[in-house]
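Provenance

Sequences were taken from public entries as deposited. Structures were produced by running a predictor on each sequence independently, with no templates supplied. The record for Histidine phosphatase family protein from Leuconostoc pseudomesenteroides is shown for reference.
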Amino acid sequence: MSEEKTTVYFVRHARPDYSCEDDRNMPLTAEGKADAVIVAEVLKNVSFDMCISSPYVRTQATIKPTCDQKKLTLRTDERLKERVRGKLGNQGDELQRRRWLDFDFHEPQGESMNSLQKRNISALTNILSRYTGQTILFSTHGAALSAILNFYDDTFGYQNFKRLEMFTPYILKVTFGMNQNLIDQSEILIIDKSEGLA
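Predicted structure for Histidine phosphatase family protein:
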């Protein structure tokens, strides 16, 4: 008997409006909204059994055109929210590097990578158990997705995260086996915004 596989399409959100200081309610820019339509176009031939998202506005808005097109109910899970940002000052890049070197490190009032990984994996494990053999649309964040990928492959580190951070939106198709092991992964969509961030 062949192994029953579960397929998850991880979608990293499109470009948000960083001028909004409320991380949870940060909307997409006009460009981000246009890119969300591209996400729907790329996924138009995929049949999804369920859809889950971080509760943040930008992740939900990125997959809303896909959900509308396919008449999917968009569920959210608080465990899938982005890493809680603390006081970064002007040391953002250095603190990022330290968090990847030491998963228990966090800036004042911030969240460690270990904490981020544990809650995201807890949610993903529940989803994989409940929807075994199905196809799932999963809208997420850069650090959260990186933490998930590191859980399955500890060679996924800081440089991989920095690469992924440039892609907004980004779609990664991942196949999981019956025992929730990662079998295969392939990049379905990369929209590289690194030039705009320079």
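The CA atoms of residues 35 and 192 lie 11 Å apart.
DSSP finds seven helices and six strands in the chain.
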